[in-house]
Amino acid sequence: MRAAAFTELTGPDGVGVIEQETPEPGADGAVIDVEACSINRHDLWILDGDSAMVDGGDLPFVSGLDVAGTVREVGAAVRDVEPGDRVVLCPNETCGSCQYCREGPENLCERFSLFHGGLAETARVPADRLLALPEGVTPVEAAAVPTAYMTAYHMFRQADLEVGDRVFVPGATGGVGVATVQIADALGLESVGTSSSGRKLDRVRELGLDRGVESTDIDTIREAVDGRFDAVFNHLGGEYTGLGQSVLRRGGTMVVCGRTAGGESTVQVADLFLQHKRVVGSTMGTQGDLRRLLGLVADGEVDPVVDETYPLGETDAAFAAMQDRDQVGKLVVRPQQ
Questions:
Q1: Exposure winner among 190, 229, 255, 284, fewest CB in 10 A?
Q2: 49 vs 265: CA distance, rounded Å
Q3: Does the global pTM surpass 0.85?
Q4: Domains of the chain, CATH where assigned
Q5: What is the per-residue pLDDT across 189-227, written as a single tens digit (0 to 9) for each?
């Protein structure tokens, strides 16, 4: 089978299509024919050599978390999945034995990790992490959901919000940003977001953003936003954390899930405790979150946004587009093409 592997950790130029043996399912696994696999900033960090998870000794490395397709084969111990089933993978990998795996939520697992291997024609996956695709949901739509939408959905669960509350979404035109805007709209919240591109902001307004600020300058954004926010959904980190804290209302919550703009932030401690503000970390979500999201997609309440699809042989171009930050929504690789 063919796979789009990272052969060098040098950015998009380090992606090459290689031949690998078709995997076996093992006793408790399944092999799926991958029809769609979206890419994420997580993959690009690995490809840029900016992740402790992968180094030169792991090459060639096949990444890809968000996988949808059709089951080809299952292991002898698998009972709930059959060949021919249309499925999407929850990419969470957990130990199954720590306190958080026993009591939940699973994304607090002490050895939490993520699946890799979806950028290939076939992939071996844990069978108990597969969810059935609802009728009418395509593999491309499904592949757009797990990381971006599950992350955004779980972030909302960290904030105590009511209909009509105001939320701030810096970087509203990327995968997590778009998902956050759409979920805010579905919940009846007022959203304000930022982007460096007016064209991209126009597109996200069509998806439910109430107001856009076209800037990446922290002071300009701070002056442009109107009033205080009940919650800030921050997938950028860096200096946007200080910005988010400064625009929170008294008692508001900022949820942080990423570090695209930098891995270190400055927090104003006095403002934090005197204003009763909360800063909460959040990683991915739970398999239950993903199941509920697929139901929302099937019911038409959330429409996963896919900017462009690519055949397997153009996976490098997909990562180049992500690096250029030119897309709105998700980029999806279709390995069978």
A1: 190
A2: 22
A3: yes
A4: 2-144+304-334 (3.90.180.10), 149-281 (3.40.50.720)
A5: 999 999 999 999 999 999 999 999 999 999 999 999 978
